[in-house]
Each structure stands twice: as structure tokens, then as C-alpha cells.
Amino acid sequence: MNIRAAILWEQGAPLSVETAELHEPAPGEVLVEVKAAGVCHSDLHPARGDWPMRTPVVLGHEGAGIVRALGKGVTRVQLGDHVVFCWAPACGTCPPCRDGRPVLCDRLEKTTYRNRLPSGETRLRARGTAVQPFLSTACFADHAVVAQEGAISVPRDVPFESLAALGCAVVTGVGAVVNAARVPPGATVAVVGAGGVGLNVVQGAAIAEAARIIAIDRQPAPLALSAAFGATDRVQAGDTASAAVRELTAGRGADYVFDTVGTPATLADALACARKGGTVVLTGLSRVDAQASFPLFPFVMQEKRLVGSVYGSGQPARDIPRLVELYREGRLKLRELAARTYSLDQVNDALAALAASQGARGVISWASPPRT
Length: 372
What we know:
Rossmann fold; 12 helices; 2 domains; 27% strand; 7-stranded mixed beta sheet
């Protein structure tokens, strides 16, 4: 079938919205009509060339839609199901999967992280050549073929724009709090970066009943938004950020610090904001060649801990439906994340707004008129 897709033909160049050919789903795969897609820094990095990548590729890895066709042997979803994309379709049989850590599935390194479906193939073609599906999802398009494990069924009464960021920013941010850090009630939390993931760390900390939640960012727009998601304090990022955090915590520093940006500078800031015995959780992805330098002394004499967290450190097939229920109970904000909506033809505007740190999430929507 012919679809419209935003294709990155050359890193550093604008995406081209054009007709592409999408082949029918093979065994174990499903065809999804995309209704909304979040615009994430993990889309911006390959577009700008921060991450070396083979092109052409259709970007987009967080979104939601409706199942329109099933490949042979599909049992996890049915025709007409509303689904959230999961860009880490785990095999379920490798050692990490058997250990309950599907986000570390061995198959992902061989297929998803090489922009291939779990079968090792792509169903996309344009201009007579094969096109890669970014993170095996490729939802900057009006239709996508994904593995059945990459489509998580959700209730049909939840608006698609509310679901758009659920499969990446929300599960990553809330999961970092709940699964990676296991923040207890009454804790003090600092969050470096109040973008899409950072806002979800903030509301994850609020759900965990943290006593104090300090949002840190360079830009005023994300900081202003953070209060609505549960931040009790807001700090301008810079040379004095760690001093401000200590002032807010009686000189001690935060119990848990989350670096959602992932640069050498923000990691150093996060470590400086943590108290003795504190935990720093790194969720942000920077350039693949980035190297951080920080003092080793605090790790021994102050017993600070550094923890990496990918995709919420949990089980997306379990966690995404749970997050939907939190939303339906009024405990999780989703619609508020969609600060700006765009048509597919405006995808480059959406990426530019993200690069300018305009806050929250831009969403490409097939269900609503643009709202920027």
C-alpha cells in the first residue's frame, strides 16, 4: 500500500514528507494506522547527525494508533485495537527477558537498534530503495508495520493525543522513578532537564509521594510547566544550580537526582546536587561519542551511586497499561504533555521547536488540527 511518510534521506537535512510503499505485515507483525506520534529528542539526534545512522530512514518511535491488519500467528492484538507503540519489542526468551528485564533484550541490539524489524527486515520502500524503520517503529507516517510485541493494547476511550508520548517519554520518566530508583515516600528529588522525559520524572516523583521535587532547566518555558506536573521548586540551570539545591535541602543535597539530558555537564551537575549516600539516575542520551569526567572521591567517601536507566527499567507490556490506568484515575497527566500539535507536513517545524526547548511534547496528529 502507498502511505505518506517523513523520510530522512540525509542526516542534517530536513525530513521529506512523500509517498512511500509499505508492504503487508509478515507473520508476527501488525499494520497500524497511526493517529498521533510524539516528537522526541531521540528523533532529533539522528535527524541532526548526533547519532551516526544509515539512511534513508523513517523516524518516529513513540505514538499510538489503530490495528488495521494482522500477519499470520498474531495473538497479542486484534483488528481494531487501539495500541501504543513500544519501540523495544522483546523476544521473551533471551537471558535478560527471562530475568524480567525485557528492555535489555539481546534481540534489540541486533534488530531494533539497527533500525530493523525483529525479523531483520524492513517493509518500507521509497524512490525504488529500501527505507529503514527507526527503532523498528517508523511512526512519522500515516501507517506503520511493527512486531506484535511492539503494539500494546489500551482502552479505546483514551484520546490518541494523550497516548502519543506514553510509549517513550512517559514510561521512561515515570519508570526511572518507580523501577530504577524506587523513590520512597518523603524523599527529596531533583530533576535535571524539564523536557518531555523530565516532566514525567517530576510527575513520577509526585506519584511516589516525594516530599520535595526540584526541577532544574536552562529555559523558562519547561520550568514553568514543571509546576503543573508536581515540581515544588524550580531552579535555573547554571553554575549555581547545585548550591540552590543544597539551600533548598538544608545543605545536604537531594536524595535522588535524575539527569534527563545526558551531557557531560549535566551529569556533573547531577552528581553535585546529590547528597551523601544519594543516587543519580541517568536517563538522557547524548552524542554517541560523549565522554564524561567527574571526581571519583564522592563515590567512595560519600557513597554516591550512579545508575543507568533505559526505557523506564521495567516491562513496557505491563507498565504501559498501568500508566493508562493512572491517567484514567486522574493521577497521571498525559493530555497536558501535548503542548503543540502539528500535521505530518509540519514535522520539521516540530523538530525545530523541540531543538529550541519550547517545553513538553510536540505531537504529530492525524486526529486534530495543528495547534502550535
